[in-house]
Amino acid sequence: MSTPPQLRPxxxxxxxxxxxxxxxxxxxxxxxxxxxxxxxxxxxxxLPLQRWxxxxxxxxxxPTRGRRPSTLPATPGETxxxxxxxxxxxxxxxxxxxxxAGPDPAGPAPSPALRRAxxxxxxxxxxxxxxxxAELWRFLLMIDGRTKVLSGTAVATSDALVAASGVAVVAxxxxxxxxxxxxxxxxxxxxxxxxxxAPARTSRAVAARLLVPGWNVYGAGQILVEIDTxxxxxxxxxxxxxxxxxxxxxxxxxVVNAVLVVVALVRGLGGSLQAIADTVELHIAVDxxxxxxxxxxxxxxxxxxxxxxxxxxxxxxxxxxxxxxxRPLPPTHASASSAAGVALSGAxxxxxxxxxxxxxxxxxxxxPTSD
Length: 371
Known about the structure:
By secondary structure, the protein is an all-alpha fold. It is 47% helix and 3% strand. It has a domain at 111-309. The protein has helices at 111-144, 152-194, 203-211, 216-231, 245-267, 273-309, 333-345; strands at residues 52-53, 81-82, 359-361, 366-368. Helix 4 packs antiparallel against helix 5 (245-267) and helix 5 (245-267) runs antiparallel to helix 6.
């Protein structure tokens, strides 16, 4: 059996005097002395050892005299001193390692939701254009009805098309608004966190500016401008607080659509034939402006999704590699001359013909080779 290792005590620090110290009794500067000599060469008094004193930093208040020493930690006026050398304590000798990665404060990227909202925006724009065409057909039938007798089938078809397209526009618009508002709330917070800032508005404040009627005419554009300024690139040509053109065009179409909706509602309260005709014309304008709002909104949402995902890596300098040959290539001029030189020198024996069982491509087709 092996004997267990014996524990050895930790070696104590060697106390050595500093050469050139002054004796506290006779004030004689000590000459160089051998190690282990701690007394004055003149009077035999014990020499003071090296003493580390911590001085206050520049600009600190001077220490007050006549103050009793306290057991509290040292203050700038009362600095600690180390009589028996520099202290050996400190932080443990550990290896720096990265902190464990916690959950991402920004959360997942909202680009998939933005793309889904953009597709719904395109569907809403298409439905609004169909509704505008149905209203235009109704207006043309009203003009013809002043001098002609209209067909009952045409009038019924026009009314059905107007009603169906109106329901489709409302349904697609509700789905688009629900998806777009949710994605924009997430994008507003995500853009702020990624850019190193705290979100300027809460989720309720963003939702209120996007959904409250009347307030959203200004608030929706404000939220989109804030998201665009956080996500978009910035240079000398585009300041930090300037929005992109798609966002500004969408905001303008949004305001125009809101004004046309209010005018159409007010004009629809009239009961005269002229008021009915004006209401149909205003419905055409409302549907066209709604199509512009939905289409430009889809463009803006797609832009936000691209900015969230970042630029895609593009591979340049594609090289088309030639296909591998199906049979051995004929010897070139250089290889034939080298083979002839080797045969004349007698360094190697003549090579035997290569037998292959792989098929060979001919003009008439694929024919197998024989051994």
